[in-house]
Amino acid sequence: MNPDQDEARIASERENLEHGFHGEEEDASTPQKDLVAAIIVGVFAVAVMVLASQQPNPGRVLTAPGLLPFITGLTLLAMAVGLAVAALRDGGGKDLRRAFFADPTQSDSHAGRGWALLGLLVALVVLIDVLPFEFAFRVGSVKAEFGSFEGISIPILAAILRLFWRASVLRCVLAAAITVLLFASAFRYGFNIPLPGSG
């Protein structure tokens, strides 16, 4: 590197320091994008709550099949309302076109990962619905089951972890497998509630 390049690099770094540090994700969102995201999440949360309330209840009170999805939907709705209020307070209701047209000077990696996450979640729901299966086997004297919920959720959750966590593939798969199997076991054997995709 010649002296002119060194001086140019130093000048560039000095200018960056004078304007403060900007993380790579700092410019990924605007009040307009936050408002649109809040609306989408809110609609999704209401749909989850409606579908959860329509789940058949086999005589249970505290462990009804729709209870956890309903609580999850209610939590999502509360977060969406909070995000919408903050976005509106920051001017998100003005010039909503900015939510759909990215500034060419901004990185689109954040948006790309968001769309990838949405695609993986849609794939999870669709695959569990169209590919139901369940295997029963014994581990000693205990009857165990492994169904499409576990078989499909583990690789998709591992892909999501890899996308955002950026750990090794092995760590992502192990974390996904442990999380999904613990969650599934709690519902299968603790609450005695069938999981989606059960045969």
Mean of pLDDT = 75
- Largest sheet strand order: 1-2
Low-pLDDT windows of residues: 19-27
Overall body shape: flat
Count the DSSP helices: 6
Tell me the structural class. Answer: mainly alpha
Please write the string of helix (H) and strand (E) elements: HHHHEEHH
Oligomer: single chain
| Strand content bin | 5-15%
Cα Rg: 23 Å
In whole angstroms, the N-to-C terminal distance is: 65 Å
Count of the separate structural domains: 2
Largest sheet: 2 strands, antiparallel
**What is the tally of beta strands?**
2
Provide the helix percentage: 55-70%
Could you describe the 3D structure shown?
This protein has 199 residues and is mainly alpha-helical. Helix content is 62%, strand content 6%. It contains six helices and two strands, in the order ααααββαα. A two-stranded antiparallel ribbon has the order 1-2. Helix 4 packs antiparallel against helix 5 (148-164). The longest helix has 23 residues, at 31-53. It is flat, with a radius of gyration of 23 Å. It starts with a helix and ends in a 9-residue tail after the last helix. Residues 19-27 have low confidence and may be disordered.
Topology:
Elements (H helix, E strand, L loop, with lengths): L2 H16 L12 H23 L13 H23 L19 H22 L3 E6 L2 E6 H17 L4 H22 L9
Kindly summarize this structure in a few lines.
By secondary structure, the protein is mainly alpha-helical. The chain has helices at residues 3-18, 31-53, 67-89, 109-130, 148-164, 169-190; strands at 134-139, 142-147. The chain is flat and about 75 Å long.
